[in-house]
Amino acid sequence: xxxxxxxxxxxxxxxxxxxxxxxxxxxxxxxxxxxxxxxxxxxxxxxxxxxxxxxxxxxxxxxxxxxxxxxxxxxxxxxxxxxxxxxxxxxxxxxxxxxxxxxxxxxxxxxxxxxxxxxxxxxxxxxxxxxxxxxxxxxxxxxxxxxxxxxxxxxxxxxxxxxxxxxxxxxxxxxxxxxxxxxxxxxxxxxxxxxxxxxxxxxxxxxxxxxxxxxxxxxxxxxxxxxxxxxxxxxxxxxxxxxxxxxxxxxxxxxxxxxxxxxxxxxxxxxxxxxxxxxxxxxxxxxxxxxxxxxxxxxxxxxxxxxxxxxxxxxxxxxxxxxxxxxxxxxxxxxxxxxxxxxxxxxxxxxxxxxxxxxxxxxxxxxxxxxxxxxxxxxxxxxxxxx
Length: 387
Hints:
By secondary structure, this protein is mainly α. The protein has helices at 19-65, 68-72, 88-119, 122-133, 140-187, 193-223, 233-257, 261-269, 274-285, 287-302, 306-311, 332-343, 350-384, and strands at 3-6, 9-12, 15-18, 76-77, 84-85. It contains 13 helices and five strands. A three-stranded antiparallel β-sheet has the order 1-2-3. The protein has a two-stranded antiparallel sheet with strand order 4-5. The longest helix has 48 residues, at 140-187. Residues 91-373 form the ABC transmembrane type-1 domain.
């Protein structure tokens, strides 16, 4: 655009701006950018200060006791003289409930996000998504109270039937969806419409019978299980999965929506069905965002304190066998919350510093997971923008 100077003013097209006004605009711009940079830097500095102060009190423990006992021993007797500070069973407990909650929350969350994005009508989605997101607004102590007072006695007295019904209710819709999608994909190669419909019906009956048999067989196995205590890893994993569900559904659904109509319409224009479009076009395009949603959900479960403190049983040992989710466990966050009150009386001792070592371990894992999820989101944006 042509520009010219007239007296102490500059002309740009139809606008004329005086030099004084330009200086004010430049100063305002610099001030605004500086203010935003200061706010952003302050947040980064807070994170660095948290890292510094946690690491400052964590390092003395490793100087006193080394790394071997902390990472390889299961003996946790911090009040003894001399104390034992083996955190292997506690780290295993954290990993165990995180994996357990992810196994429940990830399939449910992704299936729910697909339904919200590409299956349910828009009017239904407007009501369903806020209801799911309301789970994130419930205080964690309310979840813990429910897990300890209501769910744990139910699990202890009627554990087998509860797991059987939970399996039928949760796995049933998922298997029905899988049967429909699989039959649709396998019959899509048939050109003749009549043969294609008959093949789809036949496959629906075949896969449906297999799915019903699988549901019944697993349900019978679960109904025969006796649970000795309701405060166990399964209780915590189920409650944590519901706490992580809003994060996974919300982020994954936003990622699926970001794929855009042009990819969906292009797939339909090439003759693909809705199932083929979801499986072969939408999910691959949104895979990075879905993975980021899963990582954020896992971080939500790993960092939770109140529920695991109230409902995990707080037993510092590795279950026997190692995959026994019906046994009590103890986690890093619950140990920090439970022992900090007593350890505060012996400030400067190994018992005090070992809690900061656990906090540093959680911080490092959360920070690494956050970096990975950020990288994934940036990669998805580049893919969707065609860069």
